[in-house]
Each structure stands twice: as C-alpha cells, then as structure tokens.
Write a structure and sequence with these properties.
Length: 271
C-alpha cells in the first residue's frame, strides 16, 4: 500500500476502484478524481499504479493505492482492513478477467481465475465494505458486468456465466440496500479496446461488433453519470441498447448459436 497526498480534495469522500491500473478502471478513477473524490486504487502488484496515482494527484485530490492479487481470499481481507481506515462513499468492482477458448484448451487456473476474481472477489469485497458504505450519508456501488451477461456463449462459457452472476448479485443487492441510502448499479459494457489482447480479439469480430466499440473515457463518464443519477441497469451506447433488445427478442437457442459461431471464428482466426 502507498500514499500520495495533496492538500486539496475532499477529505470525507473516498472512491475505491478495483482493477484500476489500466483499461476501464483507470478511466473511472480519473473521472471520479475530476469529480473531486479522493481515490483508492487497487490492482495487481508491479503494474505502475504509482504512475497513475501521480497523474491523479495532479487533479488535487488524495490518492492511495493497494497492490494485491484479488484471487486470494487472505489478500481481500488485508485490502478490506486497509480500506476501512477511509470513509468510502463509492465502491467500483471493476477488476475482472475472461477470454475466448475451447473448453479443452482452458487450464484449471484459467477457469479458477475467472470465478475467483469476477465472482468471489466482487461479492466478498462488497459484503465486507457495506458497513463502511452505510456509515456515509449516501453511498454508491457500481459493479461491472458485460453485454456477455445477456446470453450463454460457447467458447466463452465461464465468462458470460460470471457476468450473469454480477448482474443478479447487483440487482438483488440493489433491492436489499435501497432503504439504507446505498445506490447499487450494474453496467453492461459492450466491446472496449482496453489492452492489445482484447483489441485484437475485438478486431477479429464482425463489423457490427466493431461498430459498437466505445471509447473508455466515454464509457466511464456515462456510467458514473447514470450511477449518480440512481439508474440501476446501465447500458452505454445506442448500438449496445439495440443489441440488448435483439438479444431479448431472439429465442435462446438462436442467440447462443449466433454468438458462439462468432466467437469460434475469432478463436480460429487467431490460432
Ligand atoms: N474490454 C472489454 O471489451 C470488456 C467488455 C465488457 C466488460 N468488460 C469488463 O470490464 C472490466 C474492466 O475490463 P478491462 O478490459 O478494462 O480490463 P483490463 O484492461 O484487462 O484490466 C483489468 C484490471 O483488473 C486488474 N486485475 C486483473 N486480475 C487481477 C487480480 N487477480 N487481482 C487484482 N486486480 C486484477 C488488472 O490489474 P493489472 O493491470 O495489475 O493486471 C487491471 O487493472 C472487467 O470486469 C471486464 O470483464 C470488459
């Protein structure tokens, strides 16, 4: 853990973002700092969180960071002990992993990591920070699901199932916490070019999928605007909203077939 303080910012309002070193998490952290939140960054060790922390410090807020592997339960408990020394008003469960693979090519660790990070870390961190969040006059939880939560998909199998878990977990929690002044929202991002690996996978997909790609800065800004406006289910972008409607209308067997065929094509193209 490490601290970078500035003399500005609001001493009372902290936002904790997991998976903040790059991709969507980084842009969520930068946007929250621009909204005058003090920032708690969490990511794996040795991923240059100190550089991002310096960038955020220049926005005149306090920044602290905690480097740890969230697939280990004891690390989550240490993170919570540290995080509970700050008054937390916003929790963003962004850290997540996934990918596309034939199930026969997926190692045990690959499957374990998706389940431990996307499912266990999200639910444990949330559960353990709720006493802190409910001590604040008003607080917010934003969980990052995916458009992949709207259908089972062959060759991805565990990832969409984990994002469906986040969907159901968030909606149940929203119901349970609404009387406690905690707003719980879930965002379902479509394709985002967050790192070279993900960008390559997206480029292998159809023109339709590529047309739905939205800049990270915009996904972060729109998601936060809707979170603070109290919207429970957040879909960013017209094309993603359209896809959501089509996916709801298509028979289950048809949509599984279409989506799985597209992912298989993407895997075979990169083999
Ligand atoms: N990219 C897309 O197209 C897309 C679409 C829909 C939904 N999403 C979801 O959006 C979220 C962000 O995705 P992204 O593409 O921005 O991710 P990313 O660029 O791969 O970044 C993932 C973040 O999670 C952190 N992380 C990974 N494993 C971790 C672990 N075991 N312990 C602690 N931190 C860990 C990474 O830290 P390090 O940098 O330290 O490794 C990084 O900060 C994820 O939940 C993802 O499932 C992404």
């Amino acid at each position: 853990m490490s601290t970078i303080n500035s003399n500005m910012g609001n001493d009372l309002n902290y936002a904790l973002i997991t998976g903040a070193s790059q991709g969507l998490g980084k842009f969520l952290a930068l946007d929250l700092a621009k909204r005058n939140y003090n920032i708690l960054l969490v990511a794996l060790p040795n991923e240059n969180l100190n550089i991002l922390a310096s960038e955020i410090k220049d926005l005149n807020v306090n920044v602290e960071f905690f480097e740890t592997d969230l697939t280990k339960k004891e690390n989550i408990l240490s993170l919570i002990k540290w995080a509970n020394t700050f008054p937390i008003e916003v929790l963003i469960n962004n850290a997540g992993c996934g990918g596309s693979k034939y199930i026969n090519d997926a190692s045990e660790d690959y499957i374990d990591n998706i389940i431990l990070l996307n499912i266990r870390a999200t639910s444990l961190i949330t559960k353990l920070l709720i006493p802190n969040l409910t001590q604040q006059p008003k607080s917010y939880i934003l969980n990052i699901s995916s458009m992949a939560a709207f259908s089972p998909i062959g060759y991805k199998t565990v990832y969409p199932a984990s994002k469906k878990f986040i969907d159901f977990f968030s909606l149940g929690l929203h119901e349970e916490l609404k009387s406690k002044n905690v707003t719980v929202s879930v965002v379902y991002p479509g394709p985002m070019k967050t790192n070279p690996d993900v960008s390559q996978r997206i480029e292998e997909q159809s023109k339709f999928v590529n047309a739905g790609v939205i800049e990270l800065e915009d996904v972060a800004r729109i998601s936060l605007n809707k979170l603070f406006a109290g919207k429970t289910r957040i879909i960013v972008g017209k094309l993603n909203k359209f896809s959501r409607i089509i996916l709801a209308l298509l028979p289950l067997g048809t949509k599984i077939k279409i989506l799985s065929k597209a992912v298989k094509k993407e895997i075979d193209a990169t083999k």
